[in-house]
Amino acid sequence: MTGAPTTTPAQGNEVTYDLIEVTESAIAGLTTAAAGKSAPATAMAYAHSYVDITQSNTEWRTKLGRYTIDTPGDTIVVARPQVPVAITGPTTSEIVTGAGGARRAEVTIPTQAGDLRVSVQVAESPSGAKWQVQNPFPTLDRDEVSKLGAAPTLVSVPSTSSHSTTPQTATQPITSQPKPSTTTLAPESVTAPPAMSEPEPTPVPVPVPEPGPIPIPELDTPIPGAL
Predict the structure, then answer these.
(1) 92-97 and 114-123 as β-strands: parallel, antiparallel, unpaired?
(2) pLDDT of 56-88, one tens digit each?
(3) Nearest 5 degrees, angle CA 131-CA 135-CA 136?
(4) What is the per-residue pLDDT for 203?
(5) How far apart, in whole angstroms, are the C-alpha atoms of residue 227 and residue 101?
(6) What phi and psi, each to the nearest 5 degrees, are found at residue 120?
(7) Is the predicted pLDDT of residue 164 greater than 50, yes or no?
(8) How far is CA 172 from the centre of its chain?
């Protein structure tokens, strides 16, 4: 006769007391149920939701309540960070045994505004046993958080509209302003009359011989040797 089937819980769904430290990025993809199986993961998930300033107060309280033993009330909203606070390192955890032998984990998460100390303990929930954040719910020092929101003093820079008040002459192109003449004018000089040249001598006409027999001049004495 075959016995009734038995169900063995999956090892991955059991609550563990092993303190495996986690970073903020390590729990980013975990579901609420998966984070609840580990004390460091539960504390880091709570811290990640606590410093989230992107949601409304109602959404923030609902998300935070996924990791707390009780539903967060209105009083915790007063302690909610109003400026971004970065988580700067992994968890640091230790197991502490309390009254009656009950064990809890004390987890420290470093942030820009100091350490966030989270006390978590295994408790029953509708989805089974899981690590849950205990009351009073941990918060950061508001004075330290407010220091992160102090804006640095900025040197005022004239706006674009202030440039329009600049006199127009300062923005006119250089070519629109009169340019001083760069040409040096020589003093007027009296034009000297051209030098008077001596007149050239009138050429003596060369006698032109007349055609015909050469005349013989009349002489008082006969030409020697003439008969």
Answers:
(1) unpaired
(2) 999 999 999 999 999 898 889 999 999 999 999
(3) 135
(4) 62
(5) 195
(6) -125, 150
(7) no
(8) 33
Question: Which residues are CB-neighbours of 212 under 8 A, at least 6 positions away?
Answer: none
SS3 sequence of the chain: CCCCCCCCCCHHHCCCCCCCCCCCHHHCCCCHHHHCCCHHHHHHHHHHHHCCCCCCHHHHHHHHCCCECCCCCHHHHHCCCCCCCCECCCCEEEEEECHHHCEEEEEEEEECCEEEEEEEEEECCCCCCEEEECCCCCCCCHHHHHHHCCCCCCCCCCCHHHHCCCCHHHHCCHHHCCCCCCCCCCCCCCCCCCCCCCCCCCCCCCCCCCCCCCCCCCCCCCCCCCC
Q: What is the pTM (predicted TM-score) of this model?
A: 0.61
d(CA 133, CA 65): 9
User: CA-based angle 100:102:108, to the nearest 5?
Assistant: 135
Phi, psi of 211, deg, nearest 5: -75, 155
Alpha-carbon distance values, 180 to 74, 177, 195 (Å) = 79, 10, 40
Of the candidates 12, 18, 22, the one whose C-alpha atom is nearest the C-alpha of residue 105 is: 18
